[in-house]
Amino acid sequence: MAIDDTDDGINTFFSYRVKTTFTRMLDDIILPTTITINMNFTVLEHQRIFEGVEKINYWFDNYIKNSIVFSAGNEVATKMLFSDGSPSLANLYVAFPYEPIETVLMYVFQAKCDALADGAFFVASMEMETSAEDNLKIAFVGDPLGELPSLKAFVPVDQYWFESPWWERDDISTFDVIPSGNEDFTKTPEWAKKIKFDNHTEPVVLHGDFKPTLV
Questions:
Q1: Given this model, what pLDDT does residue 57 score?
Q2: CA dist 95 to 46, 80, 159, 173, Å?
Q3: Nearest-CA neighbor of 100 among 67, 135, 142, 125?
Q4: Where do the domains of the chain lie, and which CATH numbers do they carry?
Q5: Strand, coil or helix: what is 198?
Q6: Which DSSP string corresponds to 11-65?
Q7: CA 181 to chain CA mean position, Å
Q8: CA distances for 182 relative to 19, 20, 85, 154, 179, angstroms
Q9: Per-residue pLDDT at 2
Q10: Closest residue by Cα to residue 155 from 77, 207, 102, 212
């Protein structure tokens, strides 16, 4: 953690490192991927720093680790990963708005970390290294939301549970769905619950009778 003294007061910055492994589908290629992310945070509310970090760590450990990451528009992935509308695998699915190349991984993960921080801090910069690009690190400084679609562009429906896509929400979600028409939009779906450590949240495994149409 570094402290920066300025004329306006004291600003606190700290860095956090995340490493996880998942499987990507890029077009028709299946690619095992390990990423190491170094994030530099700017603190806004000191008393909630560790709550935000715990939520980010929990999300990566329980929802990204060993997941299947693919573009919602990838027809090859959709045919392979779903059967009669149900997920074919027990792995958790992460549906990206675009092909999950390195830059898109950074945009989505940075946006989700900002959302999980819930105003306690924000990611000022991010640096990522992947197993697919040996000895190559990619850095991003800026607002990732400018590189990602809106909810309306991602979920083209008139009525929905939320006003923002999953990467902008402070919850466990890693995808959005097309409503079937019988949903109660006043109730939060199981796949978008908040992470609350006073009432331990377990990962939601997509299988059984749950048959969403993922975006």
A1: 95
A2: 33, 14, 20, 10
A3: 67
A4: 2-214 (3.30.479.10)
A5: coil
A6: EEEEEEEEEEEEEEEETTEEEEEEEEEEEEEEES-GGGHHHHHHHHHHHIIIIIT
A7: 26
A8: 39, 37, 16, 20, 8
A9: 40
A10: 212
Q: Is pLDDT of 8 > 60?
A: no
Q: Given this model, what pLDDT does residue 53 score?
A: 94
**H or E stretch including 121?**
strand 121-130
Residue 93: its H or E element: strand 93-96
Question: Could you tell me the end-to-end alpha-carbon distance of the chain, in angstroms, rounded to an integer?
Answer: 39
Question: For residue 117, what pLDDT is reported?
Answer: 96
CA 16 – CA 100 distance, rounded (Å): 22
- Between CA 117 and CA 171 the distance in angstroms is 10
What pLDDT sits at residue 40? 95
Instruction: Tell me the pLDDT tens digit for each residue of 120-164.
Output: 999 999 999 998 877 788 999 999 999 999 999 999 999 999 999
Average pLDDT, rounded, for the chain: 88
**pLDDT > 90 fraction of the chain, expressed in percent and rounded:** 74
Instruction: Tell me which residue of 93, 76, 60 sits closest to 175, measured CA to CA.
Output: 93
pLDDT tens sequence across 69-84 = 999 999 999 999 998 8
Q: Which residues contact 63 (CB under 8 A, 6 or more apart)?
A: 92, 94, 172, 174, 203
Question: Could you give the CA distance from residue 8 to residue 38 in angstroms, rounded to a whole number?
Answer: 27
